[in-house]
C-alpha cells in the first residue's frame, strides 16, 4: 500500500510539472532611474516684538450710547402733542445718544500709550527632494519590462523567475 501511494504521488507531481512550472533565468538591465519625491518641511517659530497700543479711558462698548438714547427719548417724550410728541421723542433719543458718544470720545482722548510684547507663531517652509525609489528597466527574451524597488540593483543582469503555464 505504501508503494502504491508513493507511485501515485510521483505521477501527480510529474503531471503537475508538465502542465505548469517555473524556473530562474537571467535578464539584462537596460536602465536604472532614481525617482525623487518632494517633501515639504514646515517648521514653526515664535516671532516676538514690542507693539504700542493707545489705551483710552473709555470702555469701548455701545452701552453708554444706548443708555443715553433711552434717557434722551424719555425726556423728549415729555414735550409736544400728537405727532410732535413722536418727533420730540426721536430727537431726544438721538441727542442723548450723541451726548453719550461725545463723552466717550473725551474719555478716550485722555488715555495713554501702553507697550506690550506680542508673539506670533510663524512657519518656515522648505522643499527638499529625497530619493524615493528606483525604476529598473530590463530586457528578457526580446521584450522590455519595468519594476520599482527601494534598493539599487548591482551589476548589469538580474535574476528573474519565469513561470510557464498552458493557456
Give a topology summary.
Elements: H1 2-19, E1 21-55, H2 63-76, H3 83-109, E2 112-140, E3 143-149, E4 157-164
Write a structural description.
With 167 residues, the protein is α+β, with helices and mostly antiparallel strands. It has helices spanning 2-19, 63-76, 83-109; strands at 21-55, 112-140, 143-149, 157-164. The protein has a domain at 58-110. It contains three helices and four strands. A four-stranded antiparallel β-sheet has the order 3-2-1-4. A hairpin with a 2-residue loop joins β2 and β3. α2 (63-76) runs antiparallel to α3. The chain is elongated, with a radius of gyration of 45 Å.
Keyphrases for this structure?
167 residues, alpha+beta, 4-stranded antiparallel beta sheet, 3 helices
Q: Which ranges are low-confidence, i.e. pLDDT below 50, for 5 or more consecutive residues?
A: none
Return Rg in Å.
Answer: 45 Å
Q: Roughly what is the average pLDDT, rounded to an integer?
A: 82
- One letter per element, helices H and strands E, the order comes to HEHHEEE
Percent helix among the residues?
25-40%
Main β-sheet, spatial strand arrangement: 3-2-1-4
Discrete helix count: 3
Amino acid at each position: 500500500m505504501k508503494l502504491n501511494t508513493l507511485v501515485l504521488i510521483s505521477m501527480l507531481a510529474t503531471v503537475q510539472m508538465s502542465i505548469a512550472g517555473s524556473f530562474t533565468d537571467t535578464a539584462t538591465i537596460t536602465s536604472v532611474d532614481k525617482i525623487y519625491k518632494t517633501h515639504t518641511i514646515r517648521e514653526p517659530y515664535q516671532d516676538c516684538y514690542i507693539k504700542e497700543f493707545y489705551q483710552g479711558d473709555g470702555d469701548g462698548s455701545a452701552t453708554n450710547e444706548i443708555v443715553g438714547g433711552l434717557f434722551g427719548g424719555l425726556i423728549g417724550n415729555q414735550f409736544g402733542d400728537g405727532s410732535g410728541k413722536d418727533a420730540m421723542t426721536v430727537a431726544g433719543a438721538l441727542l442723548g445718544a450723541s451726548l453719550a458718544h461725545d463723552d466717550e470720545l473725551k474719555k478716550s482722548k485722555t488715555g495713554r500709550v501702553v507697550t506690550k510684547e506680542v508673539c506670533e507663531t510663524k512657519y518656515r517652509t522648505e522643499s527638499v527632494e529625497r530619493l524615493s525609489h528606483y525604476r529598473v528597466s530590463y530586457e528578457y527574451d526580446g521584450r522590455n519590462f519595468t519594476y520599482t524597488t527601494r534598493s539599487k540593483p548591482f551589476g548589469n543582469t538580474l535574476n528573474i523567475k519565469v513561470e510557464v503555464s498552458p493557456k
